Amino acid sequence: DAGVIQSPRHEVTEMGQEVTLRCKPISGHDYLFWYRQTMMRGLELLIYFNNNVPIDDSGMPEDRFSAKMPNASFSTLKIQPSEPRDSAVYFCASSAWDRGTEQYFGPGTRLTVT
Amino acid sequence: AQKVTQAQTEISVVEKEDVTLDCVYETRDTTYYLFWYKQPPSGELVFLIRRNSFDEQNEISGRYSWNFQKSTSSFNFTITASQVVDSAVYFCALSPYNNNDMRFGAGTRLTVKP
């Protein structure tokens, strides 16, 4: 079975540019999560969706960040405009409907903003 | 408020030694889930175990074992006869029973030397 798929795996961009990260959850999973991992702050939950609907976006750092889930098999995390402090590894994860079940993570996207 | 503390930032052992990774948590919820994840040098997050708060039975899976003690709010992870391939960062995490707001500890970096 395919796991969570993320693209791109690496992204290098200049400050001020728009960045779009993509995620395909595991088929049949109805929860999707976006996390950010940095050395300073560790793993932070940014936002999560249930059945394509955003449930909690309190972790989104600021208005420059936005996330969408247009259907059950695709989600995007967009940063516009990007800043050097956005440099991090961004993970997407998905889980099944029963609450608290384990989340399965994608390989991550390493974003570098210069 | 939920909080997960992994006091050990780094641990180094020699192959075949046993090692225990500590995890202490705080929550006001009466029901919750606890997790352990492994992040090897390749960067992906690998799910290891989920434990329900109402099930305090210890669990063993091969060389891995977990000790859940509600009285001390701890969920420790022991690797028996460690191997070089066990070298990774290990994360403990907590989520309430009624939502998916998973909180991760800061992680413990385990290095197993040959």
Describe this structure as you would to a colleague:
The complex is a heterodimer of chains A (114) and B (114). Chain A is mostly beta strands and 114 residues long. The model of chain A has no long low-confidence stretch (mean pLDDT 93). In chain A, a hairpin with an 8-residue loop joins β9 (88-95) and β10. Chain A has strands at residues 5-7, 10-13, 19-24, 31-38, 42-50, 53-56, 65-71, 74-79, 88-95, 104-105, 109-113. The radius of gyration of chain A is 13 Å and the shape is globular. With 114 residues, chain B is mainly β. In chain B, a hairpin with a 6-residue loop joins β5 and β6 (46-52). Chain B starts with a strand and ends with a strand. The A-B interface holds A 31, 33, 42-43, 45, 48, 50, 55-56, 89, 91, 93, 95, 99-108, 110 and B 32-33, 35, 37, 43-47, 50, 52, 91, 95-107.
Helix/strand/pairing category of chain A: mainly beta
Q: What count of helical segments of chain A does DSSP give?
A: 0
Shape of chain A: globular
Helix content of chain B: under 10%
- The residue-averaged pLDDT of chain B reads 93
Radius of gyration of chain A using CA atoms only: 13 Å
Largest sheet of chain B: 6 strands, mixed
Q: Rg of chain B to the nearest angstrom? A: 14 Å
In N-to-C order, the SSE pattern of chain B is EEEEEEEEEEEE
